[in-house]
Design brief:
Layout: E1 2-6, E2 12-17, H1 19-25, E3 41-44, E4 56-60
Parallel strand pairs: 2-4
Antiparallel strand pairs: 1-2, 3-4
């Protein structure tokens, strides 16, 4: 599951969750709501799979808290 995030400075970044993490958080994350994310990993964005103009992306795993 991929989600597009935007911060208060209008900077966009794509975040990806896989398997159990996606199953855990998908029902709880709603569009146009404010969240605090902890324990994600920052990596280089694969621009083939994102329309967001950001050099970086986030990956959330089982250690992630929202």
């Amino acid at each position: 599951m991929s989600i597009d995030l935007i911060d208060r400075e209008d900077t966009m970044i794509q975040a990806t969750m896989f398997n159990e993490t996606a199953n855990k958080w998908y029902p709880k994350v709603e569009e146009n709501k404010v969240y605090i994310f902890a324990n994600g990993k920052v990596g280089l964005a694969n621009k083939k799979f994102s329309s967001i103009k950001n050099d970086y992306s986030l990956t959330f795993g089982l250690e992630t808290e929202i």
